[in-house]
């Protein structure tokens, strides 16, 4: 299995913040779909489960999804194999996360100074597993819920990327 190393505010693997879109295409190939939002382009690489966004043709955001075929590491911690609660505690020793509604509910944690964010669309934890409604689920439903003990994606970005949301905190 290939290791992808997260270097906050620098890059993930061989893709780096500030790299041109053309250079990314040279490295990753042309098997991507594109989305455009105003002046921002995002390329989605389904074979590597990666999203790369560009501002002024330069990488300013890189996101990897949990279903990628790589071992994703930050400081030798395997991001997608480490329980979300444990990962939050670990990263919180390095930086405080922004106090957003998403953090309060457990969905998204933005470690601004570190330059890393974590996301999951649903939350599962030890407390939820012990609740009656969870216990009554079928085995298949439990397995589906247990996926959310882990984060679904990890992202890094260029300095100032999240400045716009801080005014709402």
Account of the protein in words:
This protein is of the alpha+beta class and 169 residues long. The protein has one domain: Sandwich (protein yfey like fold), CATH 2.60.460. Helices cover 26% and strands 31% of the residues. Strands 4-5-6-7-12-11-10 form a seven-stranded antiparallel sheet. A hairpin with a 4-residue loop joins β10 and β11. It is globular. The protein starts with a strand and ends with a helix.
Q: How many whole angstroms does the radius of gyration measure? A: 17 Å
Q: What does the main sheet amount to?
A: 7 strands, antiparallel
The spatial strand order of the largest sheet comes to: 4-5-6-7-12-11-10
**Number of domain units:** 1
CATH class: Mainly Beta
Tally of helical runs: 7
For the terminal residues, how far apart are their CA atoms?
A: 40 Å
Helix content: 25-40%
* Apparent shape: globular
| H/E element sequence | EEEHEEEEEEHHEEHHHEH
Estimate what percentage of residues fall within beta strands.
25-35%
Please mark out the parts with pLDDT under 50 across 5 or more consecutive residues, or reply none. none
Give the beta-strand count: 12
Category from helices, strands and their pairing: alpha+beta
CATH architecture group name: Sandwich
Write down the CATH topology: protein yfey like fold
**Averaging pLDDT over every residue, what do you get?**
89
């Amino acid at each position: 299995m290939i290791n992808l190393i997260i270097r906050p505010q620098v890059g993930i693997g061989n893709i780096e913040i500030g790299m041109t879109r053309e250079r990314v295409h040279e490295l990753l190939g042309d098997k991507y779909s594109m989305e455009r939002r105003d002046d921002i382009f995002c390329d989605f690489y389904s074979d590597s489960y990666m999203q790369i966004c560009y501002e002024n043709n330069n990488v300013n955001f890189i996101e990897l999804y949990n279903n990628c075929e790589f071992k994703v590491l930050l400081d030798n911690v395997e991001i997608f194999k480490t329980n979300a609660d444990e990962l939050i505690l670990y990263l919180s020793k390095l930086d405080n996360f922004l106090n957003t509604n998403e953090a309060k509910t457990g969905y998204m944690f933005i470690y601004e100074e570190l330059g890393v964010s974590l996301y999951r669309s649903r939350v599962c934890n030890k407390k939820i597993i012990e609740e009656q409604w969870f216990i009554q689920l079928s085995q298949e439903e439990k397995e589906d819920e247990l996926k959310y003990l882990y984060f679904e994606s990890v992202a890094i970005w260029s300095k100032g990327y999240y400045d716009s949301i801080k005014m709402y905190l």
